[in-house]
């Protein structure tokens, strides 16, 4: 299993956290998603068939693009 931590500047409230958790959590292979309003960070634990690229693309699609770098 892989753990991915991303900075997501658009997280501003608990609604954002719930949306990210629901949408990313629905991807096949995603085991756990946690998002934090205060740190604006998202941590995703996943295994195949999920990929880092797929998770990043979904975050962009739902309006929470991860910061570069």
Overview of this protein structure:
The structure is a single chain. 19% of the residues are buried. The termini are far apart. The radius of gyration is 11 Å and the shape is globular. Strand 2 and strand 3 form a beta hairpin. It is built from two helices and three strands. With 69 residues, it is an alpha+beta fold.
- Helicity, as a percent range: 25-40%
| Number of helical regions | 2
Strand order, main sheet: write it out. Answer: 1-3-2
Instruction: Bin the strand percentage.
Output: 25-35%
Question: TL;DR?
Answer:
By secondary structure, the chain is α+β, with helices and mostly antiparallel strands. The chain is 32% helix and 28% strand. The chain has helices at residues 14-25, 52-61, and strands at residues 2-7, 30-36, 41-46.
Summary keywords:
single chain, 69 residues, alpha+beta, three-stranded antiparallel β-sheet, globular
Task: Give the SSE layout.
Elements: E1 2-7, H1 14-25, E2 30-36, E3 41-46, H2 52-61
Antiparallel strand pairs: 1-3, 2-3
